[in-house]
Structure formats: C-alpha cells, structure tokens
Amino acid sequence: MQWKPKVDGYFFSKFLNNLKSKKKFEPEDIENLKKDTTDIISKCINPSDKNSSERLASTNLVLGYIQSGKTTSMESVACMARDNAYKLIILLSGHVTNLAEQTQDRVYKSLNMFGWKRIEVPGKGEQLDYEDIIKKLKKIIEVENDDLFEDEEKQSVLIVTMKHHRRLDKIVKIFENAQENGIDTANLPTLIIDDEADHYSQDSLVRTRRRTFPSHNSPRMHTVEKGETVESIAEKYCIGEDTLRYLNNLEKNDSLERLIGDKIAIERAESTTHRRIKRLRQALKKHTFLAYTATPLAQFLISTVNHLSPKSGTVLNPGKNYTGAKYFFRQSSQQRKHTREIPQEDIQDPSIMPESLRFAVRLFILGVAVGFKNREALDGKSRSMLVHPSVGVKDHGKWKGWVNSIIRDDIKVFKSKLDSISNNNSIVDISYQSTEEEYKKAYKDLTERDAKLPDWNNDSIKLIYKSLKQTDVTLFNADGGSSIPIISWGEDGVYSRILVGGVGLERGYTVKGLTVSYLSRNVGGKQQDTLLQRARFFGYHIEYQKFIQIYLSENLQKYFQQISQINNNFLKSINEFLAKHPNKSFKEWAPIFLGSDAAKHELTRKGLYRSKSLSRYRAN
C-alpha cells in the first residue's frame, strides 16, 4: 500500500538545490527526479507505521537505463528517506573494487550534509569498533524521540560498502550486537539500496547438482514439534510463509501435525553473497530492499518466493540529454554517425594488431586536440577512450602495448615535423607524410559526421602533438592480484587517457569524457544483460557528442540493435503494468521479452532460475 511521503523536507530540498546550482541540472530533469523519488519512497515501508511488516516482504525494483543517473537517484532517495524519518541507509555498491570506490566517493560528496553518521566497513583483516557503533545507534534512537531537536537535527546512519560477503558479515554483526545490547531494530527504519542488483546478489546455486556444501552455503532444516504451524516456524526463522510452503511442497491449508518429528527445509543451499544479504534483511525488523539495475531480467526470472523477487517498482526517467541504446542503435541516422564496424580480418589473428585500432586511436587524439583548444583540461574535464578486447587479463597487456606503440610512433613523427617548422635545417621523419595522410583521413571522417574541428595547419599539428604527449594509457584490470586502479577523474592532473581492460570497464562504472570505444570482444554466450552492461558509451555526452565513435564487430552491432529493442520493449511493458495495476504485485505479472530474434537470446545466466518456464516463440 502506498503512502504520501514529505517531499519538501530539508535534506531533499538541499540536494535538489545543489543539482540546480552546482551540476546545472535542467528544470525538467529536476521535476522528473522529484517525481521518481516520491514514487520510490511511497512504495517503501512507512517509517511512522508502528506495525512491522514481515521482514523480507518489502522488496521493490528501481529500473534505470545504463549510465542514465541511477546513482543520482540513490542519493535523492537517501535524502527524501531521511526527511521521512528513515534512520539507516545501507548502500551495497557493486562487487568490483573500482565501481565500489567510485560510488562511495560520489555519494559521500553529494551527501556531505549535517548529521549523516558514516560507518566505514573495512575489508579483509580489519574489524569494526562495534562498541562505538552501538553507542551511535542508541544516541540516534534517543534523539529521534526527543522533542528538543528539530527534524533536520536528528541524525541518520549512512553505510556505503562493497557488495562482498566478508563486509556483509560485518554489517550483519552490527545489528546482531545491537539486539544483544537491547536495541530494537524496529526503531531503525532502514533502506537497503542494492546497486547492480541483478549481479552477485542473486542465488547462483538454484540449479546446482552438488550434494555437499560449506556450512555457510548449506541447506538448513527444522524438526517439526507439536503445536507448531507454518506461521510460527516462518516467524521463528524470519522467512516468508510462501517460501516455507514452496520448499516443502505444502499447500496453503496444510497442517503440520502429520510432520511432527520430521525435518522440513528452512533454506536450500544458497550462494554466499545471496545468503549474506538475506541475513542482513533478517536482522532488520523494519526495512525496504530497493534493487537498482538497468538490466532487470534476472529479477523477473527467479522464483516469486525468493526474498529478492520484487513486489513493485519504478522506472526512472532518463535526463533530457541522455543518449542510450535507442539513440545509438534504433535511429539509423545516429548509428551511421557513431558506430563503426571492426573488419573481420582485423580480429582473425589475435597476434596481429588491428589496423582499425590505429585509426580509432587517431580519431580519439583529434577529439583530445579539440578539447585542448577549448581549454577543457583547465575546467577539470576529461577525454577518454576505452579498449575492451576480452575478459582475460593476459590479452590486456598485449593490447596496451599496441596502443602505446601507436602513441609512441606518432609522437616521434609529429615531433620531427614541429622541429622542422621551428628549424629549417631539421629533417622531417620519413613516416610523417603517410602519418599525416592518415590523420587527415580521420579528420575528414569526423567532419563528415558533423564534428567541428579547427583548420588543418601548423597550430592543429601542435595540438595533436600536445594531445599525444598528454595521453596516459592505463591497464585497467587486477592483473597480478592487485586491485583495479582507482581514478580520480578531473582531480589527478590527467585530461586524456586510454583505458585497456575487461570486467572493470563493464557494470556500473562511469568512464568520464568517453568518446571512443573499441570493443573487439566476441558476442560469446549471447547473455543479454551482460552484453548490454558493456555499453559504457551510453550516458550524457552533450559537450562532445559529435566525437563519440563506437567500434564493434558486425555481429556485436547486430546484437546491440536487437537487445536495445528487447530492453526498451520490456521497460515499456513494466511501465504499462505499473500504470494499469498500481495495487498489483509483480508476482502476478508474466513478463514478455519481445524483439527481433528475442527467442535466440539468453536473457541472463541460466543458473539463476529453475522454477520459471521460459516459453520461446518465433514469428516473422
């Protein structure tokens, strides 16, 4: 049941004002954000409601297009939640280090307001100060009930952490200790926000055939005693009654009398992170779980009795200047301007550098040169290129070497040309003429696609040389057991960079100033949600939109066209269901995935769903 949250509170109003004044959000985008945030909060638990609902019952979905502003929505939701007496916000910010760090940094900067009590959850080997945290929680509950304080003076706890089972264990321990110290978690209304909720949160053991498991993954059983009911056992273990019936093939009105002395299943074997999230939810008496994702296919294919199966949801409105799948792959005019095919012969022999990579780097450098001419670096802006050859880190080093060689060779020949301009006796490198012709070809190519470049002359040659000299090539992976590099965009003195990597350049991570993307990786298993998440080139690019160039194989281009159509149709059907049936649960809805060749696609990992049947229809 929806309720009406306060929409003009101090923290939400301050957050919106910051978006207007500092980030220059359009008025239309501010209104959409306000509308979406209100819809999200109205479907969460009402913190003022004294009746705690079943702990795992309030699970909602928040759907946003890739790179469309989901983090801004999370920040907005946190602020409105605080204005409406939520005392605890827990944000699970992805399982890859660079994404978790980027999200935490962004959220801390945006919510740098009075009264957010941050709890930092350390990684492996470090412990929390549980005694100090218990004192903070008691103080927050005490102040909440004290009329001496204004609403905006009452504090809330903010936890932003990586979605990793060890860190989740530490958070669960906070609330187990809290209850042991007399704190009723019903007095801490909570929002759990799960970023990239279709990934790592889901139970990957649904279809396993294994018989033995570590203790933290293994099934749990309960011996039925006289007088027990489905309701009492479900309450004892903080699980849903439907879940208990489902696990034990019990009908709604079945009595447990015939099962006295027998063992019944409380939990089946579950993957580690999935179970830790459940334990966190079981420790919090009054909370809503908000699953944020751009690829919600898994959420609609898992069993409806799973605690992460959504009840309701909100589809976020993208910003006015958003460019996504529809822009790049559903409009033929834009596709011609922005997408380029990687010739098959370029990727047939993995030991030979593709010629199209050289041309792609030169397109990027021309864009960087325009940025330097416009003095973008002085404003803290960035220009970036992404090279995603494969998931294997060994390949990344080879490709980084190729990119470095392109940059190094071009620096050498342009330096010789500049030396000859300032000194008539200096000899121009023998390769300069052919290199210049290639740059002029790239120059002409960009201008034909509506990009505005300065006239080709000695000044532009100087700008190209400067751009080559100032471009960093970064290996963006965790090779050798190290972490993926953390980049402080616009704050580390680097304006132009080329990132070479795999997983780190996928889910959720924002590559600032991304203009050229080179994705030579194969389609692989045609897993729709995974492929769509590689599209880091979606987003807000109004300042350098004309320079966006996307290199894909013919098969990958075709596949992006298909999955963008399927995804748009799917999100549209979700919106229609929510509009027509505001009081119905998603559990009563049969999702339809409609689009060209949709029947040939794998929507998500097969290991995530077992109880759902997926009917595939093919038609002309």
Quick summary:
The protein has 620 residues and is α/β, with parallel strands linked by helices.
Folded structure, characterized:
There is one protein chain. With 620 residues, the protein is α/β, with parallel strands linked by helices. Helices cover 38% and strands 13% of the residues. The strands form four sheets. Strands 3-4-2-5-8-1-9 form a seven-stranded parallel beta sheet, sandwiched between helices. A six-stranded parallel beta sheet has the order 11-17-15-12-14-13. Strand 3, helix 5 and strand 4 form a beta-alpha-beta unit. The longest helix has 30 residues, at 393-422. The chain is globular, with a radius of gyration of 27 Å.
Overall pLDDT: 89
Number of strands: 17
Please tell me how large the radius of gyration is: 27 Å
What's the story with the biggest beta sheet?
A: 7 strands, parallel
> How much helicity do the residues have?
25-40%
How far apart, in Å, are the first and last alpha carbons? 42 Å
Q: Low-confidence runs (pLDDT<50, min 5 residues)?
A: none
Spatial order of the strands forming the largest sheet? 3-4-2-5-8-1-9
Strand content: 5-15%
Structural class call reads alpha/beta
Shape: globular
Number of helices: 17
Tags for this model:
620 residues; alpha/beta; globular
List the helices and strands and how they pair.
Layout lengths: L9 H12 L5 H16 L16 E5 L6 H14 L4 E5 L4 H14 L5 E3 L11 H15 L11 E6 L3 H16 L9 E5 L25 E4 L6 H8 L3 H8 L14 E5 L4 H12 L3 E7 L18 E4 L6 E2 L1 H5 L2 H7 E3 L13 H19 L9 E6 L4 H30 L9 H17 L9 H12 L1 E6 L19 E6 L12 E6 L8 H5 L6 E2 L8 E4 L1 H27 L40
Parallel strand pairs: 1-8, 1-9, 2-4, 2-5, 3-4, 5-8, 11-17, 12-14, 12-15, 13-14, 15-17
Antiparallel strand pairs: 6-7, 10-16
Helix pairs in contact: 1-3, 2-3, 5-6, 6-9, 12-14, 12-15, 13-15
